[in-house]
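Lab meeting, item 3. Inverse folding demo.
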């Protein structure tokens, strides 16, 4: 691989990585405040358009929580907590995956996504379609 190929791969990575940067800052700030600081979603106090969001009301779907062992943005256990909050969902419809050696971005994209996570996601979807 020459330097040009490497530069193009890096550019492509950052083009995709920054693709959500045009989202309104208020969205991110509200998420941090409500979900992480006030913990209103976990406490059953989160409101959307005047309606309280009740995670215990989830009953007819399957929930796969995926985390990366090396995630430097979301702490281990953060998405796993969603499984406990979905109290109305049968345990057979819940699954947790801690992807070894995977960082935050690798959960969603790249070789680790393709090799370690996507096959499990596909299997989970087929099992609960």
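The presenter then showed the designed sequence:
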């Amino acid at each position: 691989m020459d330097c040009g190929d490497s530069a193009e791969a890096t550019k492509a990575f950052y083009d995709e990585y920054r693709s959500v940067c045009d989202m309104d800052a208020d969205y991110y700030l509200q998420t941090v405040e409500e979900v992480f600081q006030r913990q209103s979603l976990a406490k059953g106090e989160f409101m959307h358009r005047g309606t309280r969001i009740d995670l215990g009301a989830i009953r007819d779907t399957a929930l796969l929580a995926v985390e990366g062992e090396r995630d430097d943005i979301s702490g281990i256990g953060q998405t796993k907590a969603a499984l406990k909050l979905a109290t109305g969902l049968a345990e057979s419809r819940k699954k947790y995956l801690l992807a070894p050696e995977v960082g935050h971005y690798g959960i969603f994209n790249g070789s680790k996504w393709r090799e370690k996570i996507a096959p499990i996601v596909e299997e989970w979807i087929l099992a609960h379609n």
